[in-house]
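Table S2 (text version). Query chain:
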Amino acid sequence: MNSQTKPDGTSATAGEPISFYAKADKIHPREVSGRFARLRVLAVLVLLGLYYLVPWISWGGRQAVLFDLPARKFYIFGLTLWPQDFFYLAILLIIAALSLFFFTALAGRLWCGFACPQTVWTEVFIWIERMVEGRRNQRIKLDKSAWSRRKLRLKILKHGIWIAFALYTGFTFVGYFTPIKELGAELARFSLGPWETFWVLFYGFATYGNAGWMREQVCIYMCPYARFQSAMFDKDTLIISYDSARGEPRGSRRKDADLKASGLGDCVDCKACVQACPTGIDIRNGLQYQCIGCAACIDVCDEIMDKMGYQRGLVRYTTENALEHQQTHVLRPRMFVYAGILLLLVSGLSYAVLNRTPLELGVIRDRNSLYRETGNGLIENVYTLKLLNMDEADHRYTISASGLPEMELVMDAEEISVPSGAILNVPVSVRIDPEDLRTSSSEIEFQLQSVDQPNLNTRSKARFIGPAPR
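Corresponding structure-token output:
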């Protein structure tokens, strides 16, 4: 009788349907302690602390960080950004992408293992699961046991805490776009708007599903970074590796066993590294795309080495060149290029933001006529000036023009008052004696100057059209 192999490795007889999807077993990561575990805990506390705390900070009578989409204002502490400042966001995204390249080329998936939102929230959900259901062996035993009152009570408690935490996460997310104190008051009165309700539930559901249920599946199947990360690696990238030359042949033994006599390497084949891995891989099989670089296997292996009295580092951060040729070149030209570009971009963005002028002047020339001649023989061009006050305070401005000799600027008022956040259209005209025109098209410049704040000013160029000079 003919047989075929199923995805799980078992054989199927002829005629038996074969599923090409092997259901993934639930992973129960082992508790780990060590320097990298402490770093992960610190990263979780800092990142989530900032996420949940920042919306409650006040700055200058308003929420310190608020993305006010209806008003088209983005408040970041003392800085107010407008849609016209999209340039800064573009530079920030470029810096983020280059930073990812830099840290990946330096030490692999540092982002995934310590700072990725999926990793951070999954850590919290696992902590909650451990607090309710117990340690790894207790959780495995509970999942395999038949349903009982105790199991039902623990599962309801765990998922209740998960859902409450996920909903508060969604509430905090919406609090970055709607003032969180107002949002909390509306929630207490059960009067949340439809959009706020939708996004609280949507983001809460996404957090509950990704961190509570899907976990490593997001990293393995949904995250594109896992697929192209190898393109940013080279043989001098620091990666988590198993030293097979030292560890093989693996095998169990007594603590006082003579390794040379037994012919064994340092690996005791305890599989603690597999049990600690949040994606369930065996690091001893080499670098795999499922590895998120959390370094849990390093901590747990070092713990086993300490117990056996062996040297630490059987699983460690190292490079392919270090393993194969005992050569390490972590600081290589590629890293200096990335660092130089990053330093240049960060310096440029910082300078631009610190010296940003919260004022914009746009010039629109009247296109109904190229020019017109006044009653006293002057050539006149008409313009509409668009004034945008992006400052937090109201200001009064004066307008002047330069670029041609004996120019005359005609407008209704000497000073223009523009409220904070307002856009004002100001019609003006420029007149000049045709004898002073050298060409039919000349460049002129409008200057906008604040009366009450001398360092607040901006300029914008335009064209003055006239008859061809005689």
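Notes on Table S2: The two ends are 104 Å apart (CA to CA). The mean pLDDT is 90.
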